[in-house]
Write a structure and sequence with these properties.
It holds the Pfam family Clp_N. This is Clp protease N-terminal domain-containing protein. It is built from twelve helices and no strands. By secondary structure, it is mainly alpha-helical. The chain folds into two domains: 133 residues, Double Clp-N motif, CATH 1.10.1780; 39 residues, no CATH class. The chain is elongated and about 65 Å long. About 7% of the residues have low confidence.
Length: 191
């Protein structure tokens, strides 16, 4: 299937892997594909997205804010509390025994985030949703009778099943429906 992808669309998928790694994700999710498109998609598509308030920097900040350096989130803390483990008490005990910066010293500050949070070097697998979005990009291109899969087709595939995080990044269902129309118009002009 990737032989049908344009150069920019391929570059966007590779950039998605790098974005996942930089955000410390062990897998490439739909939101990483969005970041890849913002970084490496065709200039017209990136411009369209920027005109709609969707920038690479803004999306990265939103995802970074949602992804804390804390490997245990609020749900994990609650689950531990339910079995009698107070995560805050464990942290306080570690700091009392090893110093206030013990947890910071455990992870060197200059170590890349992906390595720090359990990310890995080399190939990072796609989630099922990300694979589905790429498959849908092929279907979008076929339905339009386009000969290759451009970045716009990848975005259309994402917009068909964006998932919760990507839906929030893109401004909700109404914004997604409006964006689909604009992308189709962009692809019509390019054809």
């Amino acid at each position: 299937m990737f032989e049908r992808f344009s150069r920019n669309a391929r570059s966007a998928v590779v950039a998605a892997q790098e974005q996942a790694r930089e955000l410390g994700s062990p897998e490439i999710r739909v939101e990483h594909l969005l970041l890849g498109l913002l970084e490496e998609g065709e200039p017209q598509l990136r411009s369209l997205l920027e005109q709609n308030g969707f920038t690479l920097h803004g999306a990265q900040q939103s995802l970074s804010a949602a992804t804390t350096d804390d490997p245990l989130g609020p749900g994990d803390a609650e689950a531990l509390r339910s079995i009698g483990i107070d995560l805050d008490a464990v942290r306080e005990s570690l700091e009392a025994g090893f110093g206030a910066d013990a947890l910071d010293r455990a992870i060197p500050a200059d170590e890349p985030r992906g390595r720090r949070r359990g990310g890995r070097l080399g190939h990072i697998p796609f989630t099922r949703d990300a694979k589905k979005a790429l498959e849908l990009s092929l279907r979008e291109a076929l339905a339009r009778k386009d000969k290759s899969i451009e970045s716009g087709h990848v975005l259309l595939g994402i917009l068909r099943t964006p998932g919760q995080v990507a839906t929030e990044l893109l401004g909700g269902p109404d914004e997604i429906a409006r964006l689909r129309g604009e992308i189709n118009t962009l692809l019509d002009k390019a054809a």
